[in-house]
Design a protein that fits this description.
Mean pLDDT of chain A: 86
Largest sheet of chain A: none
Number of helices of chain B: 13
Distance between the termini of chain B: 6 Å
Number of helices of chain A: 16
Number of strands of chain A: 0
Distance between the termini of chain A: 36 Å
Structural class of chain B: mainly alpha
Number of strands of chain B: 0
Oligomer: heterodimer
Shape of chain A: elongated
Radius of gyration of chain A: 23 Å
Strand content of chain B: under 5%
């Protein structure tokens, strides 16, 4: 490629440039968003920690060191140990798994449900839309954390899978509303009418022609959704209603800090997990912002 | 306007109905029945059946729901499993502290968010806009409980300016200033996330208005930029921000659960956690329902305020 072709904005866009697809252009816009790119880099590091935890963590996350309870950082335990003598750094690394599992798991579930329901409401309209829209209105009236707490508390013993399922089953209405709006604006366009005129079935029209064009905003919403799910899991685990010890989660590692002694005298117990939550949620939010700018500049808030 | 109001209120009816159905539905799904929590372990199956009939638990769920709804419209929300007190009393005494906390936080988030949003918009793509954007994202991404802990650590344990929790000094006389002193830290913690959202919203709304013709006209007249921003742009940019207040209520109430827990604030959020730990489902259901009602009415009020403030909007 010579310079003239790769310079943005030149009139002499060669054959290569003219065929740049929407996604290639979006990628280029995304890469210009510095905060988003750094956010993505941080997320890749955290994902690597989660996947390679077994090889990276210096100790087992559940092993008790009987010689060190609430020990300050030292050579053996770089971030000290917790109230029962477990290595804080190892727990911090393993806890990345919990956050990523909840983030990706819950959001995958509700993206599937929300897309299906939103597409049905937008595509069929009429009574179907009226009913589904009212259900969304009702579900969106419940403050998220309170309805989640209510559901988690009656769902049996709190655990990682319960958190994923509850967040997945309760998270769809906002996404469904987004998809519904997209489908409503797309279904009257010529290419959709053309597809229907050729006799394509409803499911083919929706899956092949309508939904692919609604993908961009769904991707953006899902990215912010992952950040939010990580925050909610941390809050639930912090309150003792999410992931239970000895399984480490950044949220339940902070539970001890509700006691003023730990809070005042043992910052190594609560500052690192809090920082990890902040940095991962912040990174994902930046990625989401970058995606929004890249995929549809008009969506920018 | 009257017809719009009537229609909005009519739409509320199915939503309110849905809120009660859903609250009751989740509760009815509860594994195990309340009788098992009230009895002693040695009770026979027959005794339990009698109890169950006494409570009407042998009836189908829709019959129980209708009866419950009948009581609800008379203001009876049932009785707490753990204390036996009427749910209305238990929740009622917690409502005011929560409204105080969330109301103050809402106010603070606007006081913080509006100026930052305006600066970010008027100096678009400058260093201050960049800093504002990063701060906004930081505000949205900070977990409330971590921020709360940091706040207690810094302001209550290190410099000892503010109390670690509660609504008044123990053994003290209370009073307005003492209350304010206790309110400051929890309300600020709760306000941070909201301030992030307000900043973002004000910035985009302001950018929108600044690009409009009447702003260009005002500038063309030779008015000082400060006057254009304050008198022409800001007044119009703030109108859509009213809607945001309605949208923020759910997040505020959710944040209150965490904040109240950390700061030992005796509001509905703390009651939620207590009710969960005691498996006190009538209380839990009442809280879920009341918060949903607050959200629904908050949105209604925001929409109506929008119509009142903006003369261009004519609802039919």
């Amino acid at each position: 490629m010579n310079d003239a072709l790769s310079t943005a904005g030149t009139v002499t866009a060669g054959p290569r440039a003219r065929h740049d697809s929407f996604w290639v252009l979006a990628l280029r816009r995304f890469l210009r968003h510095r905060l988003a790119v750094s956010g993505l880099a941080v997320m890749l590091v955290i994902a690597a920690l989660a996947v390679g935890a077994r090889y990276i963590a210096p100790h087992s996350p559940t092993a008790l060191d009987p010689t060190a309870f609430q020990a300050p950082p030292s050579g053996i335990h770089p971030l000290g140990t917790d109230s029962v003598g477990r290595d804080v750094l190892s727990r911090l690394i393993y806890a990345a798994r919990v956050s990523l599992t909840v983030g990706l798991g819950a959001v995958s579930i509700y993206v599937l449900i929300g897309t299906a329901i939103g597409a049905a409401a937008g595509f069929y309209g009429g009574g179907v839309d009226l009913l589904l829209s009212r259900v969304m209105d009702v579900m969106l009236s419940f403050p998220p954390l309170i309805i989640i707490l209510f559901a988690v508390s009656i769902f049996g013993r709190p655990s990682l899978s319960n958190v994923v399922i509850v967040l997945g089953l309760l998270g769809w209405p906002a996404l469904a509303r987004l998809v519904r709006g997209q489908v409503l604006s797309l279904r009257g366009l010529e290419f959709v009418l053309a597809a229907r005129a050729t006799g394509a079935s409803d499911s083919r029209v929706v899956l092949r022609h309508v939904l692919p064009n609604a993908l961009a905003p769904v991707l953006v919403a899902a990215t912010f959704g992952v950040a939010n799910a990580i925050l909610i899991e941390a809050a639930l685990s912090f309150l003792g209603l999410g992931v239970q010890p000895p399984t480490p989660s950044w949220g339940n590692m902070l539970t001890d800090a509700q006691g003023l002694t730990v809070l005042e005298r043992m910052p190594w117990l609560w500052v690192p997990p809090g920082f990890m939550i902040l940095i991962s949620v912040l990174s994902i939010n930046f990625v989401g912002d970058g995606l929004r700018d890249a995929l549809d500049p008009s969506l920018r808030l | 306007m009257h017809r719009y109001l009537a229609r909005r209120l009519l739409i509320m009816v199915p939503i309110l109905f849905g809120i009660t159905v859903m609250s009751y539905g989740i509760m009815a799904l509860t594994p195990g029945d309340p009788v098992q929590m009230l009895i002693s372990p040695g009770m026979s199956a027959e005794d339990m059946a009698i109890r169950r009939r006494d409570y009407g638990l042998d009836r189908p769920v829709y019959v129980r729901y209708t009866k419950w709804l009948g009581q609800l419209v008379r203001g009876n929300l049932g009785y707490s499993f753990s204390t036996g007190a009427p749910v209305t009393t238990r929740v009622g005494e917690r409502l005011i502290p929560t409204l105080k906390l969330t109301g103050t936080a809402l106010l603070m988030s606007y006081v913080l968010g509006i100026p930052v949003g305006v600066i970010a918009a008027t100096k678009r793509y400058s260093a201050s806009d960049y800093v504002a954007t990063v701060l906004t994202f930081l505000g949205i991404s900070l977990p409330t409980f971590f921020l709360g802990l940091v706040g207690i650590y810094l302001f209550a344990l290190r410099v000892r300016w503010l109390p670690v929790g509660g609504t008044m000094t123990l053994g003290g006389e209370g009073g307005f200033l003492d209350g304010l002193h206790h309110l400051l830290l929890p309300a600020s913690v709760l306000a941070v996330a909201g301030a992030g959202a307000v900043t973002r919203y004000v910035r985009s709304s302001m950018l929108d208005v600044l690009g409009q013709d009447f702003v260009r006209t005002a500038r063309a007249k030779g008015l000082a930029e400060a006057i254009v921003v304050r008198h022409h742009a800001l007044r119009n940019a703030l109108i859509p921000v009213i809607t945001l207040a309605g949208l923020q209520i759910p997040a505020l109430l959710a944040g209150a659960v965490i904040t109240e827990q950390i700061f030992e604030w005796p509001g509905m959020g703390r009651l939620t956690i207590e009710a969960i730990n005691q498996r006190d489902y009538p209380v839990l259901m009442a809280i879920t329902m009341i918060t949903a009602l607050l959200v629904a009415f908050g949105n209604l009020l925001a929409d109506l305020a929008y119509a009142v403030v903006d003369p261009r909007i004519h609802y039919e």
